[in-house]
Automatic annotation (TrEMBL), chain A:
It comes from the Eukaryota. Keywords: DNA replication, DNA-binding, Nucleus. The keyword Metal-binding does not apply. The lineage of its organism: Eukaryota, Metazoa, Hemichordata, Enteropneusta, Harrimaniidae. PANTHER family: ORIGIN RECOGNITION COMPLEX SUBUNIT 4 (PTHR12087). Component of the origin recognition complex (ORC) that binds origins of replication. Residues 228-412 form the Origin recognition complex subunit 4 C-terminal domain. InterPro entries: AAA_16, ORC4, ORC4_C, P-loop_NTPase. This is Origin recognition complex subunit 4. It is found in: Nucleus. Belongs to the ORC4 family. It comes from Saccoglossus kowalevskii (Acorn worm). Residues 35-186 form the Orc1-like AAA ATPase domain.
TrEMBL record, chain B:
Pfam families: AAA_16, ORC5_C, ORC5_lid. This is Origin recognition complex subunit 5-like. Residues 224-285 form the ORC5 lid domain. Keywords: ATP-binding, DNA replication, Nucleotide-binding, Nucleus.
Length: 432, 456
C-alpha cells in the first residue's frame, strides 16, 4: 500500500478535480459529518441515550433544539454511525426517519413507518380500528422472529411541524409507547423552534420525557477560524502527498491574511452558524481551476460581497426613471401622512407637481402610462395593497411602500444616467 | 468588463470548449453570470449545491441562460413553470414526467409516470426514478420558473424543495427563478438557505447590442442601432423591458424606412428620418405600449397611413366612451356627483333657492381631496334626489329607472358598497373616471364640472 502511495503523483488538473470533489461534497451535503466543534457534552448525552436504548432496552425521548444550520442532523448522523460500529447493534437496531416536510399528515407518516420497517407485506390489506392499534401491530410484528423485541429509533426531523397535525395522534402514540409499552423505542425530535414544548398538547407533553438538548453555536471567533481551516484542509487520505502539503500550508497562510480575517469576522458577526461559513466558501471552491489552483483572500472577499448584497437595492437599480419617480413621490407622501397608505391618484398628483415645478428634462407622461409603471412596481412587490379586498378601483387602492429611504438613496447613487432633478427631488425635505 | 473571465473559465469542467463558446455566443452580455453558474454546476459527477435562487427583472435572461446551459451541455434536467403547475400534484407529476421521459399522449392514454399527490411520494418516486435511469452520481437539475407562485401553495413545499438533496439523498440541484427577492419568500421557521444569484439589468449599451441582433438583412446594423437609439430616447425613461423594446422596434421599423423607400431621404439623412418618426413614436407610446391598439391594428394603420389620411379611429377616446340610454347617462352623472361631493354641499348645488354662497368658506384647505381620495359611498335616496334635480322634464320613478341602476352596477360603472341589504338602505359608489363622466355629460349637454365641489 505504502509503495503505491509514494509513487502516486497527479497532475495539477487531476489534483484540483479531486480537491473539488472532496470539498464540494463537504460544502453542499449538510449532513456529511465533519469535526464537531464545541458540542462535546451534547454529543455525549445523546450517545448515552441511544446506547442505553439499544443495549438495555430503555425507552426514551428527547428533543434537539438549535437554529438552522447549527448541525443537529449532522451530530445525530455521526452518533448513529458510531453506534452502528458495534457488532450486536448493526443487525438489531431499526431506524425510522420521518420529516415534517414530507409526512404532512399522520396517514402518510404511518405508511412511511410501515415502509421503513419493511412490513408492507405483513400489514397487507388488514383493516385496523385506530391509529394506536396499527402502530402497536407494527411494533409487535417486529417481535415475531425473536422473543425479545428489537429497539426502534424514531428520528423526527422538523418536529414542530408534527405538532401541527390533527390531535397530534402520531406524537401521542409514539410518546405513549415510549412510556408504557414493552418495545424499546427512542424518539428524537429535531427542531429549530425554542418554544416547541408549548406547541404540544397537555397529554402529549406529559408523556414526553422533557429532555431537551440545545445545540447553540457557541463558537468564539478563534474557534470559528479553526472551523474554517478544518473545512478547507485536505485529509491525510488525499492521494497526492506533495499537493496536500502545499494546499494545507496555503490554507494555513490564509489565517495570517488580514482580508480573510476581516471577511470571516463580517460573516461571523452576521451569522455564527457553520452553514453560513459553508455558503461563503462554496463559490471560491467552485472557482478553482488549473490557472487558479489555490483559494486567495480576494476570492473570499468577492464571495462575501455576493452574500451580503442588498437585493432590493439591486432590483431598484433596474427600474425605469418613471418608476423611480413614483417611488420617490410615494416616499415623500408616506412621510407626509406618517406612514399611512397612499393611493395611485395621490402619487400621480405628486408626480405632476414635480414635473411642473422642477422637471425640465423629465417628460410628463399620460396617466395610463404612469399607471402601467405603477402596476409594474406592484408586480415587483415594491409596493403592496394595504386593503384586503379587490373592491375599489385601481387608482384609489391604498398602497404601502416597501422600500425604505436608505435603499432609495443607495439606488440613486448607483443609478446610471439619473436626471439631476430626480436626485434633488429625492433629497429635498417634503413640504405639502 | 467580464470578458477577461471567458478565456479562463471556458475550457474547464470537463466540457468541450466549443460547447461553452456556443453558450456564450447565444447569450450576449451574460458572461459573468454564465461563468458563475458553470462553476457552481461543476462537472456532472460533482456534488452540486442543493439549491440556487436566481432573481432579476423581467427579460434579463434568467430562464434563457439556465435553459441554454442545461440543454447545450445535455445535463439531466426538468424545467417546470409554477404558473402552469398550480397544484402540487401537477408540479410533482410534471417533474417526474420530464425526468422519466414520459410524455402524456394518445399512445399512452395520457397517463403520467406515476400518480403522485404528496411530497412524500414525490421524493420516493424521484429516488426510484434516478436509480432506474442510471443517472448515477450525475447531478439532476430541477428548474422552477416563476417560483414566487410556490409561496401560494402548501407551506411545506418550498422548504422541502430547497432541501430536496438532503431529503432524497440524491445529487439534485433545485434552481428557483423569480422576479421577486428572496426576502419575500421567508416564512415560518425558515428554510435551508439557497445560493442567491442576481441577474442585473442590461445597461443601455448592452440592450443596443442585443437588439442589433435582429436587424433586417437589407440594412446595416449601425443603421438599425441608430434607429433603436432614437426609439430608446422616447421609451427608455418609461420602459426597461427588453422584450417590449424589441417588439416596439420591430413594429415601427417599416414606418422609419418609409421615406427611404419613397426616395425622399437616404440612409445617411438621419435628421429627416428622425423628424418623420418622432411623432409616430410618441403616438405609439400612448397606444401600442398600453395595448389599447393591438399590434395587428397598428401594422394595418401604418400601411393605410402611407396614402395619407388614415387615422386611428378615436382610439384615444376609446377608453372613455360607452353607449348608454338617456336616463342611464343622467343616473351615472348623478352617481358621480353623489360620490365626489360632500353631502353638506348638496343644498347649495342642487336646490333652486340656496342662500348666498360664501366662496371663501368653500375654498378651504384641502381643495381637491375628493378627487384624490376616491369615491365615497352614497345611499340610493341621495342618488335619486340629485337625479331629479339635474334631469330635465318630469320623470316618473318607474321600474325602468330602478332597473337601470342595477344594470349600471352590472356594467361595473357603479358598485355596491355594502351587500348586507339589497333593498333597504343600499349604498353605492361610482367607479368611473372624471374623463369618462365628462364625455358622457358632453353627450347630454350637461356641464358636470360646474357641479363638482372640487372645482368650484
Amino acid at each position: 500500500m505504502s509503495r503505491r502511495k509514494s509513487t502516486l503523483k497527479l497532475t495539477t488538473g487531476e489534483c484540483i478535480d479531486e480537491v473539488q470533489r472532496l470539498l464540494r461534497e463537504k460544502l453542499s451535503h449538510d449532513s456529511v459529518t465533519t469535526q464537531v466543534f464545541g458540542l462535546e457534552t451534547q454529543r455525549r448525552h445523546l450517545l448515552d441515550i441511544i446506547k442505553r436504548c439499544v443495549n438495555m432496552g430503555e425507552s426514551n425521548s428527547a428533543i434537539i433544539i438549535g437554529p438552522r444550520g447549527s448541525g443537529k442532523s449532522m451530530i445525530l448522523k455521526s452518533i448513529l454511525e458510531e453506534v452502528k460500529l458495534e457488532d450486536n447493534v448493526q443487525d438489531n437496531l431499526l431506524e425510522v426517519h420521518l420529516n415534517g416536510l414530507l409526512q404532512t399528515d399522520d396517514k402518510v407518516a404511518l405508511k412511511e413507518i410501515t415502509r421503513q420497517l419493511q412490513l408492507e407485506n405483513t400489514v397487507g390489506d388488514k383493516v385496523f380500528g385506530s391509529f394506536a392499534e396499527t402502530l402497536s401491530f407494527l411494533l409487535e410484528a417486529l417481535k415475531s422472529d425473536k422473543k425479545t423485541s428489537r429497539p426502534v429509533l424514531f428520528i423526527l426531523d422538523e418536529f414542530d411541524l408534527f405538532a401541527h397535525h390533527k390531535n397530534q395522534t402520531l406524537l401521542y402514540n409514539l410518546f405513549d409507547i415510549s412510556q408504557s409499552a414493552q418495545t424499546p423505542i427512542a424518539v428524537f425530535g429535531l427542531t429549530c423552534r425554542l418554544d416547541v414544548i408549548e406547541l404540544l398538547e397537555k397529554r402529549v407533553k406529559s408523556r414526553f420525557s422533557h429532555r431537551q438538548i440545545h445545540i447553540f453555536s457557541s463558537l468564539s471567533f478563534d474557534e470559528y477560524i479553526d472551523a474554517f481551516l478544518d473545512i478547507l484542509s485536505l485529509p491525510k487520505t488525499f492521494p497526492d502527498k506533495n499537493f496536500t502539503k502545499e494546499w494545507n500550508s496555503h490554507i494555513q497562510s490564509l489565517n495570517d491574511d488580514n482580508i480573510t480575517i476581516d471577511v470571516l469576522r463580517r460573516i461571523y458577526q452576521n451569522n455564527k452558524s457553520i452553514g453560513a461559513l459553508k455558503r461563503l466558501l462554496l463559490l471560491p471552491v467552485c472557482r478553482l481551476s488549473e490557472d487558479h489552483p489555490f483559494i486567495r483572500s480576494t476570492d473570499l472577499l468577492e464571495s462575501c460581497q455576493y452574500l451580503t448584497m442588498d437585493s432590493k437595492a439591486a432590483m431598484l437599480h433596474g427600474v425605469s426613471v418613471l418608476e423611480l419617480c413614483l417611488i420617490i413621490a410615494m416616499k415623500h407622501l408616506t412621510t407626509l401622512y406618517d406612514g399611512d397608505p397612499v393611493n395611485f391618484q395621490m402619487v400621480y398628483n405628486e408626480y405632476q407637481k414635480f414635473i411642473q415645478r422642477r422637471g425640465h428634462s423629465v417628460q410628463c407622461y399620460e396617466k395610463a402610462v404612469v399607471l402601467k409603471a405603477f402596476e409594474h412596481l406592484l408586480a415587483l412587490e415594491m409596493i403592496k395593497p394595504a386593503d384586503g379586498g379587490q373592491r375599489s378601483q385601481k387608482e384609489y387602492r391604498p398602497m404601502m411602500l416597501l422600500v425604505d429611504a436608505m435603499q432609495i438613496d443607495d439606488a440613486l447613487q448607483k443609478y446610471p444616467n439619473c436626471p439631476t432633478e430626480v436626485k434633488q427631488w429625492n433629497m429635498t425635505e417634503f413640504h405639502a | 468588463m467580464a470578458s477577461g473571465k471567458i478565456g479562463k473559465d471556458s475550457s474547464c469542467y470537463g466540457y468541450s470548449k466549443e460547447r461553452i463558446d456556443e453558450i456564450h455566443n447565444t447569450l450576449p452580455c451574460r458572461e459573468s453570470q454564465i461563468s458563475t453558474l458553470l462553476a457552481l454546476f461543476g462537472k456532472p459527477s460533482h456534488a452540486a449545491y442543493s439549491s440556487i435562487f436566481i432573481y432579476g427583472h423581467t427579460a434579463s435572461g434568467k430562464s434563457a441562460v439556465i435553459t441554454t446551459i442545461l440543454q447545450t451541455l445535455q445535463l439531466p434536467h426538468a424545467i417546470v413553470n409554477c404558473v402552469e403547475c398550480y397544484t402540487q400534484r401537477l408540479l410533482y407529476e410534471h417533474i417526474l414526467n420530464q425526468v422519466g421521459d414520459v410524455i402524456p399522449s394518445p399512445d399512452n392514454n395520457y397517463s403520467c409516470y406515476a400518480r403522485c399527490d404528496n411530497m412524500n411520494d414525490f421524493v420516493r418516486l424521484l429516488k426510484n426514478l434516478i436509480e432506474e435511469k442510471e443517472l448515477g452520481s450525475r447531478t439532476l437539475f430541477i428548474v422552477l420558473d416563476k417560483a414566487e407562485r410556490l409561496r401560494d401553495m402548501d407551506a411545506n413545499i418550498l422548504p422541502a424543495l430547497l432541501r430536496l438533496q438532503e431529503l432524497s439523498n440524491c445529487n439534485i440541484c433545485v434552481i428557483l427563478i423569480s422576479e421577486i427577492v428572496l426576502e419575500k419568500f421567508r416564512t415560518g421557521t425558515g428554510f435551508h438557505e439557497p445560493f442567491v444569484l442576481h441577474f442585473p439589468d442590461y445597461s443601455k449599451d448592452e440592450m443596443l447590442e442585443i437588439i442589433s441582433h435582429d436587424c433586417p438583412s437589407d440594412y446595416s446594423p449601425s443603421f438599425y442601432i441608430s434607429y433603436v437609439n432614437l426609439l430608446m430616447s422616447i421609451f427608455y425613461m418609461v420602459c426597461r423591458d427588453l422584450n417590449e423594446l424589441r417588439h416596439l422596434a420591430q413594429l415601427n421599423f417599416p414606418k422609419y424606412i418609409e421615406p427611404i423607400l419613397k426616395g425622399e431621404a437616404t440612409v445617411e439623412n438621419a435628421p429627416k428620418l428622425w423628424r418623420n418618426i418622432q411623432p409616430h413614436l410618441q403616438k405609439a407610446l400612448q397606444t401600442i405600449y398600453l395595448r389599447e391598439v393591438s399590434s395587428a391594428q397598428w401594422e394595418k394603420y401604418q400601411l393605410e397611413n402611407v396614402e395619407g389620411a388614415g387615422s386611428l379611429p378615436n382610439l384615444l377616446s376609446l377608453r372613455s366612451s360607452v353607449e348608454l340610454p338617456y336616463y342611464s347617462k343622467y343616473l351615472l352623472i348623478a352617481a358621480y356627483l353623489a360620490s365626489y361631493n360632500p353631502t353638506r354641499t348638496d343644498k347649495r348645488f342642487f336646490s333652486k333657492h340656496h342662500g348666498k354662497i360664501n366662496k371663501h368658506k368653500l375654498k378651504k384647505t384641502e381643495k381637491i381631496s375628493f378627487q384624490l381620495l376616491g369615491p365615497k359611498p352614497f345611499p340610493l335616496e341621495r342618488l335619486m334626489a340629485i337625479f331629479y334635480s339635474i334631469v330635465e322634464g318630469k320623470v316618473a320613478p318607474t321600474a325602468n329607472i330602478f332597473s337601470q341602476i342595477s344594470s349600471l352596477v352590472s356594467l361595473h360603472l357603479v358598485s355596491h358598497v355594502s351587500s348586507d341589504d339589497q333593498l333597504d338602505s343600499a349604498k353605492y359608489k361610482c367607479t368611473v373616471s372624471l374623463d369618462f363622466i365628462r364625455s358622457i355629460a358632453r353627450t347630454v349637454n350637461f356641464d358636470v364640472v360646474r357641479y363638482l365641489y372640487d372645482f368650484v
